[in-house]
Design a protein that fits this description.
Layout: E1 4-13, H1 17-28, E2 34-37, E3 57-59, E4 62-64, H2 82-85, H3 104-117, E5 124-125, E6 128-134, E7 142-148, E8 153-163, E9 170-171, E10 185-188, E11 202-206, H4 210-220, E12 226-230, H5 238-243, H6 245-252, E13 256-258, E14 264-265, E15 270-272, E16 278-280, E17 283-286, E18 290-291, H7 299-302, E19 305-307, E20 313-315, E21 318-319, E22 323-324, E23 330-332
Parallel strand pairs: 1-2, 1-8, 2-5, 8-23, 10-17, 11-12, 11-17, 12-13
Antiparallel strand pairs: 3-4, 6-7, 7-8, 9-18, 14-15, 15-16, 19-20, 21-22
Helix pairs in contact: 4-6
Bound molecules: flavin-adenine dinucleotide (FAD) and NADP nicotinamide-adenine-dinucleotide phosphate.
């Protein structure tokens, strides 16, 4: 199959909340010569739950369940209000329950309606993965290579590249002593879907933030045998104290929290904690968060990443957290400053 070549002034990678905000701004400024490229089949980013199935990918010799899969699960509700999650020019429809919780489907529908309202369909190509974005030193344009689900390849040439690829697709996977020989399931929270699946089991949730607490609460609303939790340290920053409301809720519902990581996972399915405490565990869920991932960019050449506290890295050389200061034709939305 031959490769198509297309020129565009601006390319947006990703059609989630960030990509939609960018596209709306371009339309508001009568800029038409742009395209938004999205690997899924609809708008909404990670809230587009239906189209994500995930697959097993071995990492470091361990087959993690559905690594790289969807971070959104069946009974997810929002933890922010409609006012905080909506676009200023497009309120949520009346009648949708708001504070404290909205069902995930309300958010998905909202993004689809927002795109329709701004006619963003015309500017979007779905089922298209951006594979590589390159710019030669001193050149005027970015080369953007894409692959569509039907196998078609396209090479775009654009002046400006806006990266809106989100930061919840690359799970952080802790290294646990003895995990290679642990006989029972070890998964990341991105593979969690239905809480009923864990009924009758002894579960260990690793992590001390929102996912850890929310997953534990959801399972405790069903009929698990026991839910244990552990975190590498007690919350010691204001940010962590804010994000641990759901952890406290899980403890209130009966989860047992260890304030240290497991010392060893044993080949008989037991997990050893400090002071020799031993628990039999059927499933370990690592709710250990996500890291930034820009595998379509040459992050080394751009000198883009350094180790950091949030999402595994700091994204470097960003003016106001958006424009790549060495070459502002590259910009990012949704990065933590
Ligand atoms: C479990 C969970 C619950 C959350 N709950 C809330 C909440 O209640 N309230 C809140 O405000 N925030 C919440 N968030 C934060 C969430 O990040 C934001 O709500 C929002 O989805 C961020 O939008 P985004 O567009 O930046 O990223 P995403 O929604 O991740 O969208 C990125 C898009 O880029 C596409 N993409 C990525 N790489 C490529 C590529 N190479 N080629 C083509 N397309 C690509 C993806 O398919 C995706 O559609 C939650 C996050 C998680 C993980
Ligand atoms: N709407 C909802 O109800 C909902 C539900 C789930 C998630 N979310 C959102 O999703 C996003 C991600 O949340 P998250 O909880 O998945 O991730 P997170 O907030 O980044 O938290 C990750 C947790 O894992 C721990 N951790 C990271 N690496 C570790 C390692 N190597 N070993 C041990 N522990 C490790 C962290 O410990 P430290 O504290 O020590 O760093 C932290 O407690 C957030 O924006 C959150 O608000 C929302």
């Amino acid at each position: 199959m031959s490769t198509m070549r297309v020129n565009k002034h601006i390319i947006i990678v990703g059609a989630g909340a960030s990509g939609l905000a960018m596209a709306r701004e371009l339309r508001n400024h009568n800029i038409e010569d742009f395209i938004m490229l999205e690997r899924k089949n609809n708008f909404g980013g990670l809230w587009n739950y239906e189209s994500t199935t995930g697959e097993d990918i071995p990492i470091d010799g361990i087959t993690w369940d559905q690594v790289g899969a969807k971070p959104v699960y069946d009974k997810l509700t929002t933890n922010l209000s409609q006012k905080m999650m909506g676009f200023h020019d497009f309120p949520y429809e009346e009648g949708i329950p708001d504070v404290p919780l909205m069902p995930r489907t309300a958010v998905t529908n909202y993004f689809i309606q927002f795109a329709k309202h701004h006619q963003l369909d015309e500017y979007t190509k779905f089922n298209t993965i951006v594979q590589k974005c390159e710019k030669d030193d001193g050149a005027d344009n970015w080369y953007v290579s894409t692959l569509s689900k039907d196998g078609r390849k396209t090479e775009y040439l654009c002046k400006y590249l806006v990266v809106c690829n989100g930061h919840h697709s690359q799970p952080i996977l802790p290294k646990l002593n003895g995990m290679q020989n642990f006989p029972n399931r070890i998964m990341h929270s991105c593979s969690f879907d239905r809480s009923e699946e864990f009924n009758g089991k002894n579960i260990l949730v690793i992590g001390g933030s929102v996912s850890a607490g929310d997953l534990a609460v959801l399972m405790l609303r069903e009929k698990p045998n026991k839910v244990f939790m552990c975190r590498r340290k007690k919350p010691d920053t204001m940010f962590r104290k804010i994000t641990m409301g759901s952890v406290n809720a899980a403890i209130k519902r009966g989860a047992k929290m260890y304030n240290s990581m497991p010392l060893t996972l044993k080949s008989n399915g037991h997990v050893i904690f400090e002071k020799g405490v031993e628990e039999q565990i059927d499933v370990i869920i690592c709710a250990t968060g996500y890291s930034y991932k820009f595998d379509f960019l040459n992050v080394h050449k751009l000198d883009l990443l350094e180790d950091g506290e949030f999402y595994g890295y700091n994204v470097k050389h960003l003016y106001e957290g958006i424009f790549y200061s060495k070459d502002p034709s590259l910009s990012f939305l949704g990065i933590h400053k």
